[in-house]
From TrEMBL:
Key words, A-Z: Signal
Record domain Stress-response A/B barrel: where: 53-147
Protein name: Dabb family protein
Cited InterPro entries: Dabb, Dimeric_a/b-barrel, HS1/DABB1-like
Location of region: Disordered: 27-49
Signal peptide range in chain numbering: 1-26
Spans through the membrane: none
Origin superkingdom: Bacteria
Keyword match Nucleotidyltransferase: no
Subunit record text: Homodimer.
Length: 151
């Protein structure tokens, strides 16, 4: 009878420990779930994004310009960010639209500035002017559009 009582007592004690552990695990799971919810919610909150000034430049080259001359213009434009600190980024590419609405413009350069003051420093900058001297003999038309990013 003592063995049965001890076994029964041990079993109840063991059951109590397991039950208590389960509650602790469930509570910590709820805590981490709450923490995960807070993290997810803060990640989904709208953040203040900084507006950027975009300077879009499209070039149409003269028919007489050779591929080597066009390449020289590309390289000269791509060198500008290393020479003009106000340029925050530069992206570029050549037209590949199947719509045939490019009106002869083949190259797009996408320059980003933080402010109108930065753009104002860029436009008369000696390195920008030197680039213009390289571009000039090969340029048929240019189209420039500047805008502030919108969200």
């Amino acid at each position: 009878m003592k063995k049965t009582f001890l076994s029964l007592t041990s079993g109840i004690l063991l059951l109590g420990v397991v039950a208590f552990s389960s509650c602790q695990t469930a509570d910590s799971k709820n805590d981490s779930t709450e923490s995960e919810k807070e993290t997810t919610e803060s990640m989904n909150e709208p953040t203040e994004s900084k507006k950027m000034l975009r300077h879009v430049v499209l070039f149409k080259f003269k028919d007489s310009s050779t591929p080597a001359q066009v390449k020289e213009v590309e390289e000269a434009f791509l060198a500008l960010p290393s020479k003009i600190k106000e340029i925050k980024s530069l992206e570029w590419g050549t037209n590949n639209s199947p719509e045939n609405l490019n009106q002869g413009f083949t190259h797009c350069f996408f320059v980003t500035f933080d402010s109108e003051e930065d753009r104002a420093a860029y436009l008369p900058h000696p390195d920008h002017k030197a680039f213009g001297a390289i571009l000039g003999p090969h340029l048929d038309k240019v189209l420039v559009i500047d805008y502030w990013t919108q969200e």
